[in-house]
Each structure stands twice: as C-alpha cells, then as structure tokens.
Amino acid sequence: MGPPPEVTVPLTRHSLIDAAAARLGWRRAYDTTTEVDALLTEQSETAYREAADHVALATAKNTSTLSVQPGVLDVRGRILADVLYLEGVLAGARTHGLAPELIQRLEDAVTHGHELTVLLADTVRATTAGFSRS
Question: How far apart are CA 22 and CA 16, in angstroms?
Fold first, then answer.
C-alpha cells in the first residue's frame, strides 16, 4: 500500500479552522470593524464577480414572463428563510439585553426583509397568466 493521496488546499484568507467551522455551519465572530469591513468587502467583491455570470444566464433563460417565475420564487424563499432566522437573532438579542443600537438595526433589517418578501411575492403574482403579456 502506497502513501496516501496528496491533499491540496487552496491558499485563501481563511484558516483551516475557519474552513472546518464553515463546513459545520459555524461562523467566526469578528471583534474589530477592520475585520468586519474586510469580510464585507470580500463578500461584495465575490458577489459582483459572479454577477456577470448570473446576468448572462438570466438573460438567456428569462425569455418570457412565466420563465421569470421560478427564479423569483427561489430568491423569495431564500430571503424569507433568512429573515425568519434574523427574527430569531433579534429575539435572542432582546432576551439577553444586547445594545439598543444593535436591536434597532436588527429590527430594521427584519422589517425591510419582510417588505422585500412581499415585493417579491407581488412580482411572482405578476408572472401568472392573469398578469402576463408574453
């Protein structure tokens, strides 16, 4: 029996511990705004880098009103699940008496998230035969 196969790990900013934690669904907490800003920048850069692919795919496949529906339904479902998760975060923050500014920002995010899910539900309704023009 020979040596075990070589395992290569891509070089990233994240440590092995961060990668393992993410794999288990755990998230690292950052205690400085510098670290948080770096993570937010990284998230934005990744999203915008991938956006070109999303636009090309969406342009090719969304050729009719009804073809828009599945994608919008998927987005609404993910956002709704995330907003409900944020409601739990908010409940925990309130229960443990965390900073009022944090609680206010969580409340704002939850409210905005619910508003977004309503707008997306209206968008999905606009894709049905009663609204469709194509």
Answer: 10
Q: What is the pLDDT of residues 87-124, one digit of tens each?
A: 999 999 999 999 999 999 999 999 999 999 999 999 99
- Structure tokens of 33? 């705004």
Do 112 and 80 touch, CB atoms closer than 8 A? no
From the number of C-beta atoms within 10 Å of its C-beta (0-12, 13-18, 19+), residue 86 rates as: middle
For 36-72, the DSSP string reads: HHHHHHHHHHHHHHHHHHHHHHHHHH--SHHHHHHHH
The radius of gyration of the chain from alpha carbons, rounded to an integer in Å, stands at 20
